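Researcher: Here's the sequence for the chain we discussed earlier.
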Amino acid sequence: MKHSDPQMNLSIENVMFATDFSSATTGAFSYAAAIASRYQSKLYVAHVINLESFDLLESEAARITLQTAHDEAQRKMTQLLAPLQLSRDRYEIVVSEGAIADVLVDLIKRNHIDLAVLGTHGRRAFKKLLMGSIAEEVFRMAPCPVLTVGPKTASMPHSGGLRHILYPLEFKPDNSNAAAYAVSLAERYSATLTVMNVREDMRTSANTAEEQFSQPFEHWIRDNIPSGSDLRNRIRFERGFGPASNAILDFATKSAVDLILISVRQLDPVIAAHLPKHGTAYELVTRALCPVLTIRRE
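Model: Thanks. This is the structure I predict for it:
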């Protein structure tokens, strides 16, 4: 079943889609299904029941209500998967209960998930998950890349392809696989790859900008793109200035970017749960018109 990229040896064998059954997750599911189809991956569809809502019920009532929630989740996920007509070995339905972020990260680890796909606004507990601090826990703690489909993002195009990928980066050591993912995805989809560097401490009129940026960009191409790759004809470099999230989002909107790919720092679970809500990753995930792929660095 494993389908590897011929140049970067990138494989996506197992994809997990987390759902709360709200209409907001429809777009995210279309991305998960399209990626699983392209990479011939096994698709895990997961729903987490937040036990906080059962705290006020008597034990027997809670048991019955919880079982009903399990059964209803199974039914809805079976219904969601039906149009894909996947063979039984190509998908798995998972209904779990507990603290949502912890359960999702545990499912990712136990099932060797290569890519997790999340929608970013829903109802009840998932609204808290995907628009608040728990979202940061998921993409900063998960050992795999996380594709987040925001509230302003349309469903996956019918073509199922990516035409333009944006990779913002800093020209400093990064031990994540973000560059490899950016190159591999651009190769697989024959997409344009824009590498963007944002200088928050420099005005757009700075005379030294061209000189300061051109040499690191050339080094990045040499270090990350094979010499015979056609991607070298489709790569672009963009300079941004001012607040990083604004510069990235402005360019992504103006240039019809289909995917933003960024590396994020791994954090201790306690720290991740108390992050401020104004970091660059959070701003991109909640405001972008396209999905955001976050790849954790140590």
